[in-house]
Amino acid sequence: DRGTLAAYVGEFVLHREIQSPNLKALDSWRNRKYSLAQFCKQITQPLAKLKRTEIMHWWDTLSPHQQKARHAEFRRFFNWLMGRELLPTMKYNPFTLSDDRPRLYQSATPKRTSIRFDITGFWKIYHAAGALGYEGLQIAMGISLTTFMRETDILTLKISDDLEDDLLRKVIGKSLAQVGEAKAERLQWNIKDYDLLRQLVSKAKVLSLKNYRCPYVISHTPKQKRIGKTKDHICQVTPRRLIEMMGEARDLAGYGGISNPPSFHTVRSLANKLALKAEKSREEIQKNNAHKSIETQLIYQEGHDLPFEDAPIQFTAEQIGGDFR
User: Fold this and answer.
1) Confidence tier at 307 by pLDDT (50, 70, 90)
2) What is the pTM of this model?
3) Which residues contact 213 (CB under 8 A, 6 or more apart)?
């Protein structure tokens, strides 16, 4: 009697956290654990009789976003189960990526209806943020446009930890969650040679002093000065607060009332568009977006000081239609 999937999901989660201790601190890992638990509640067939068709029927009930978010971790789960010979009726992992096996393909994503930034819209919202006193949002928008970083990486940037001499360095969070410390994308920007980014970093340091010496690059003094569970400094900007400030600036800039207004994440899309317009190669754009892992030999350097690679794309003031002075 091998039981059901629910009998083993806890053991698998423990196995993953032992193998990758950094998972425990990630919001994405909490989401993945929850998804696994929910899946195991829905698939109640005994493991000795579990077949791929039941997994396929469940898969087809998910949205494209849900399918994308679950596929990698569920593939690991079934690899673990099959390695322990707990699925005798399955000849291969149902979440396989192999082309010579029947795969669980992701459903087509509906056509995007939200509005994307153009450079004019970017500057409208940027200046609206300034009018509202949201200088931290301005700096975050500028860093996202010039470095292609996601908001989660920008909000975790620390002046003492990620700024060293003339370098801005960052281990990309999404890459870290997917492939671990050794193989995660590690990008650096030479501030000395990058005028736009130097302007933003200088503003961030001055703002930090105003905001009670906040250690974060993005800071803002709130009306209610309290720390709470989601931050460790009263002036730290949380993802939720960034969304709220972005919404206010967006409305002031004239985007109010639109059903799908441009989000903060859309700044990255604008950066990609500007990079293509500036005739940057797709390989350079891919590197700046941290969509490709560093070389395999870095696996063998785990536990040591791992190297950072130069981020190849640097915009000029002319290319983005303004500067941050």
Assistant:
1) low
2) 0.66
3) none
